[in-house]
UniProtKB/TrEMBL annotation:
This is MerR family transcriptional regulator. PANTHER family: HEAVY METAL-DEPENDENT TRANSCRIPTIONAL REGULATOR HI_0293-RELATED, REDOX-CYCLING DRUG-SENSING TRANSCRIPTIONAL ACTIVATOR SOXR. Pfam families: MerR_1 (PF13411). Transmembrane segments: none annotated. GO terms for molecular function: DNA binding; DNA-binding transcription factor activity. The lineage of its organism: Bacteria, Bacillati, Bacillota, Bacilli, Bacillales.
Length: 138
């Protein structure tokens, strides 16, 4: 399969697939070079790209992807090590979720305040006064 066919099938760009190859996420099991130097991708490349997309979907960085795929290929990690990595990833996502929740609270407060400036300025001022009090107490 040629790179454009693979890109279309996987919802990626040829540039992204070449980048994965350059970074070592795809190797000779996934890509064969023809005599004209065109890349020919195997069915294993499809499965590998699905795996890459799966781990990107849970927020894995490029460095994590490399490690995960090396571990996947070599099967060297123990089950306990994989469990520890999963727990670490869950904790990381929970921290990010808490940060996003805090951002949403702040943005919703700002939106309400801005709307009240037009609709009910005294209530907007009361919101701001309450915020100043809370900020002074922290």
């Amino acid at each position: 399969m040629k790179i454009q066919q693979l890109a279309d099938l996987m919802g990626l760009t040829p540039h992204t697939i070449r980048f994965y190859e350059k970074e070592g996420l795809l190797d000779s099991r996934h890509i064969q070079r023809e005599k004209n130097n065109y890349r020919n991708y195997s069915d294993e490349a499809i499965e590998r790209l699905k795996l890459i997309k799966k781990f990107q979907g849970i927020g894995c960085s490029l460095a994590e992807l490399k490690t995960i795929l090396q571990d996947h290929d070599s099967n060297e990690r123990t089950n306990q090590e994989v469990i520890e990595w999963i727990v670490q990833k869950i904790n990381e996502i929970e921290r990010k979720k808490d940060e996003y929740d805090h951002m949403l609270v702040t943005l919703n407060w700002m939106l309400t305040y801005r709307k009240l400036l037009t609709e009910n300025p005294p209530q907007a001022e009361a919101m701001m006064a309450e915020l100043r009090i809370r900020m002074g107490q922290q």
